[in-house]
Design goal:
alpha/beta, Rossmann fold, 9 helices, 45% helix, Isochorismatase-like_sf, Isochorismatase-like_dom, Isochorismatase, Isochorismatase_domain
Length: 192
């Protein structure tokens, strides 16, 4: 019996940016890499018509989303207090209404809000992809353990660049040159 191989296309994916807020970023040792990779994902999503949504954890206390990310998500952010984005009013209904089975989760913290959201989305029947260079925790052990746990639960670890190449799918894609410029213009993946 054939096994379903989880793959992404621009037509079947939604990008969710979780809680990339300035006060939290200040505590992340990989903040620069995280922000660059989330911005890269958002730039590619905008070019390829992949819808993106963003959340903010208790913005009254933790402040706004990082400016470069906020500028790339002009629709605003869903404020929440639940660690899982699925606990925010309307979030899950919004995703279901888009009829896209794949969710790419980026943001922080990997072992809290990203993990809780991923588990809830998997339980709700979505396929979850984790670009490991676009998620972060204050401690590397927490992030690494979260990725291992989520992979065992059914999430697919990947990288930001791998996600974008899957979205494009072919060098003949009309947006390939624009995507290539984004890729060439990025810092070396994983560097800070």
């Amino acid at each position: 019996m054939p096994t379903l191989i989880p793959r992404l296309t621009a037509a079947d994916t939604i990008l969710v940016v979780v809680d990339v807020q300035d006060k939290l970023l200040a505590k992340m040792p990989t903040a620069g890499v995280l922000v660059r990779n989330v911005e890269f994902l958002l730039d590619a999503a905008n070019l390829l018509a992949v819808p993106a949504v963003g959340t903010e954890q208790y913005p009254k206390g933790l402040g706004p989303t990082a400016a470069g990310i906020a500028a790339r998500l002009p629709g605003g952010f869903l404020a929440k207090t639940a660690f899982s984005c699925c606990g925010a009013a309307g979030f899950l209904a919004d995703l279901r209404g888009r009829e896209r089975p794949n969710v790419v989760l980026a943001g922080m913290e990997a072992h809290v809000c990203v993990a809780h959201t991923a588990l809830d989305l998997l339980e709700a029947g979505f396929r979850v992809f984790l670009p490991v260079d676009a998620i972060a925790s204050r401690a590397a052990l927490d992030a690494d353990t979260a990725v291992r746990r989520l992979e065992r639960a059914g999430a697919v670890p990947t990288t930001a660049e791998a996600v974008v190449f899957e979205w494009v799918g072919d060098a003949a894609h009309p947006q390939f040159k624009a995507i290539s410029k984004l890729i060439v213009g990025r810092a070396t993946p994983g560097s800070d």
